Amino acid sequence: MEKGLGLPDGACDCHVHVYGPFDRFPPVREGKFAPARETPVETLLALWDSMGIAKGVIVHALAAGADNDVTLDALKRHPDRLRGVALLKPDVTDRRLDELTDAGFRGVRINLLRQDGKAVSSGGMSLDDLQPLAPRLAERGWHVQLWIETGDLQALAPDLEKLPFDFVIDHMGRTMADKGVDYPGFRDFCEKLKTGRYWCKLSGADRNTRQGSGKGASFDDTASFMQALVAANPDRLVWGSDWPHVGHSPAEIPQEDDLLRLFFRCVPDEAVRKKILVDNPARLYGF
Question: What is the tens place of the pLDDT at every residue in 127-177?
Fold first, then answer.
């Protein structure tokens, strides 16, 4: 960790993925977000230890393999440090749901991500998958994590809000930086944060920037978005690194220190940083 970026005790990284070992958990090697290398939970925990991160949330990725197995294995081995977000099929059994809940899974991730009207990644869970599962997930206290751009969220919200869930929005709403903070979908999402029904992950600056995301990147064009979200409702924000940054070319892989440097610039108040890094994740994920 860079000097001056000291994290509070109990800091959480609320958005990571793990892949492998591939001989135990074969990946799906298709599409933009296929893993280029093994990044098992031991590598993740070593990185967190070097950064001063105590806990975190593994979001099971479609490319990580079948049936949430690699994530479930990690949670069972490190129950004090890890929580999970699953990908499920509608025919999942109650027994399996209970096993996942007991291990620390707290939500499902739904893929609704489009940019300029085109799907960014196929696969994962859809709203059609979620609908029949909704009563059973709600009974277990799970939330729904949405991989969605804020303009599409604005359009879908009336139907989404009929479901019995709180919603966690990925990557600052996945609004590309050149749309600006006055983009109607993003403005609407800032208002939604004030209702208490929505959460947002302060992550994905490397996905939303138009300035490049390789080593030393400043992500300055995303800063106003993060600042606007903090101003809207710091009680409904968590931070995530999105390690190991699949989908980037080797030259564009962001560095954790650069991502944290952006967070510290946008959240200069130490008490607010602690809220986002420690207190909010404890409430949302049950640490």
Answer: 999 999 999 999 999 999 999 999 999 999 999 999 999 999 999 999 999
DSSP string, the chain: --TT-PPPTT-EEEEE--B--TTTS-----STT--SS-B-HHHHHHHHHHHT--EEEEE--GGG-GGGHHHHHHHHH-TTTEEEEE---TT--HHHHHHHHHHTEEEEEEE--EETTEESS--SB-HHHHHHHHHHHHHTT-EEEEE--HHHHHHHHHHHTTSS--EEESGGGG--GGG-TT-HHHHHHHHHHTTTSEEEEE--HHHH-SS--STT---HHHHHHHHHHHHH-GGGEEE---TT-TTS-GGG---HHHHHHHHHHH---HHHHHIIIIIHHHHHHT-
Query: How many other C-beta atoms are found inside a 10 Å radius of the C-beta of residue 115?
Result: 13
pLDDT tens sequence across 259-283: 999 999 999 999 999 999 999 999 9
Given the residues 242, 257, 269, 279, the one annotated as active site: 242
What is the torsion angle, in degrees rounded to the nearest 10, for the CA atoms of residue 219, residue 221, residue 222 and residue 228? 140
The pLDDT > 70 percentage for the chain reads: 95
Residue 274 token pair = 């602690």
CA 233 to chain centre: 18
Instruction: Take residue 91 and report the two structure tokens written for it.
Output: 């025919």
Query: Stretch 245-270: mean pLDDT, rounded?
Result: 94
Active site residue 235: no
What architecture is domain 12-285? Answer: Alpha-Beta Barrel (3.20)
Average pLDDT over residues 74-90: 97
Beta bridge partners of 226: none
Pick from 118, 120, 173: which is nearest to 145 by CA?
173
Average pLDDT, the chain: 93
